[in-house]
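cron nightly-structures :: item 1 of 1
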Amino acid sequence: MTDKALLFINGIPPKNLPEISEYSLIACSDGAFHYLKDQNFPVERLDFISGDFDSHSGNDENIYGNKFIYTPDQDKTDFQKSLEIIKERGFKNIDVYGGSGGEMDHFLGNLTVAFLFKEDLKITFFDDYSQYYFAPKKVVLNGIKNQLISLYPFPVAKDVTTTGLNWPLNKETLNITTRIGTRNFAKEDTVTIEFQSGDLIIFTGNKDSENFNGILK
């Protein structure tokens, strides 16, 4: 067990579920609860299920009612409300599944929610193609050779310098409206990424992704 939390939200369900023994807290939004049940996830291991529960059956409530945390606030997303609960319980490292896919406004909204918490929480999103997160000012990635690396400013990251990438950057500015740093890849086993100011999202591709193609071999 670690000090990490695991959160499932209502995007595209992951094809492969993570190893839950690595987490000290496991939670989901009420929408994600349905796909977890469909995938035979051991829902009894959930510490809480957060949402307004307008899509749940009476049977769910009878069996898991003590785990439901009713959060009807329509000014916040289920993702944001779940993060608030996890933060209140003292966790800072949170892995999130189901944050991408489906309706793209949800995906962009999830990035915005993660941005709101980036000073207090270390949130890493996982999907079937990549993992991604708001980066600290310096990141060192090991064991990464040939993997897809994308850098995405949110909306600006200044003085970005990298080593180990096929197309390196040297104190360059990335801006969402003029220049971004997507579809690069690691030519070395160790990659460093640094920037001086602004905000930067790092996407690291999965080697077993369907999108892992010949240019990365």
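cron nightly-structures :: done
The radius of gyration is 18 Å.
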